[in-house]
Amino acid sequence: MKKKFQNSKTETVVYFICSLVGLLIVWQLAVSFTSLQKVMPSPFVVLGFIGQSLTQKIGGKILPLHILASLKRVFVGYFLACIIGIPLGILMGCSKTGKAIVKPIFELLRPIPGLAWIPLAILWFGIGETSKYFIICVSAIVSIILNAYAGASQVDQTLVGAARMLGAKPAQIFLYITLPASVPQIFAGLQVGLSSSWMAVIAAEMIRANEGAGWIITTGMESGNTVQILAGMISIGLVGLLLASLLRLIERGLCSWNIQGR
Q1: Neighbours of 80 (CB within 10 A)
Q2: What's the CATH superfamily of 58-254?
Q3: 73: closest CA among 246, 225, 239, 222?
Q4: Cα–Cα distance, 103 to 186 (Å, whole number)
Q5: Burial (0-12, 13-18, 19+ Cβ within 10 Å), 67
Q6: CA dihedral sign of residues 90, 91, 97, 99
Q7: 252 to each of 56, 79, 83, 152, how far by Cα in Å?
Q8: Does residue 105 register a pLDDT over 50?
Q9: Most C-beta atoms within 10 A of its C-beta, which of 23, 71, 128, 148?
């Protein structure tokens, strides 16, 4: 089983590398032999810019520091979404009263995209860091609440009934049955929420910022620097991929009986 898992992992890495190489080849051919070269730089020019930006500053900071600034904003907003969303989702799934109180409000706010909150975020919190944290939080919290609710509400009631017959208290049922059964679904929500947070940081940094991956794209757009725009987009994609992979590794450790996202 372990050998099979390692082979599967190796195949995934090989396919990933092949897909990236294929993308670079298609990109290079497109800019070499089509009119796309008028608006799109070569992939090697963009990669060269990314390599230079590791040591040369963009607007006062090198690229890794811009990425770290965006990550800080993402983690603050994402952490707030987790500490609010997971308890609310579990409350909706475990308590009829909690569901009756929380779910109508949740269903009302659920269709509203995180970016729609930008005007209110500016009115409530100004154009500083707090408004960015708020936008990232509301962008992630819906999927976190929804999956935590799904996990808690789909617990096998036969196990719950058996535990009650054996004299288990409500707190014990929650800790030893409900919560472990909900963890896989919660992690599914955390995956989606993290992706939403990382996408929302771009919009959050467009409000007003002087650093970050979104700022790199915005300033590139203002100056007409396509190379810088693409470099920022590629950096965002790579960091997002690393974050998702890290969360999958954590999930494998905590949910080895129900691995998702292979």
Answers
A1: 17
A2: MetI-like (1.10.3720.10)
A3: 239
A4: 17
A5: buried
A6: negative
A7: 38, 20, 21, 20
A8: yes
A9: 148
Question: Any idea which residue has 């100056």 for tokens?
Answer: 223
Q: Are 252 and 259 in contact (CB under 8 A)?
A: yes
By CB atoms closer than 10 A (0-12, 13-18, 19+), residue 62 is middle
Q: pLDDT value at position 177? A: 83
Q: Which of 201, 219, 223 is nearest to 210 (CA)?
A: 219
Which residue reads 């905590």 in tokens?
254
Whether the CB-CB separation of 139 and 191 falls below 8 Å is answered with no
**Is the whole-model pTM more than 0.85?**
no
Cβ atoms of residues 82 and 90 within 8 Å: no
Mean pLDDT of 235-256: 82
Query: Nearest CA to 50 among 250, 256, 245, 236?
Result: 236
Which structure tokens are listed for 46?
A: 């963009």
Average pLDDT for 17-22: 87
Q: Where are the beta strands (DSSP E) in the chain?
A: none
Q: What is the pLDDT of residue 204?
A: 81
Distance CA 136, CA 256 (A): 29
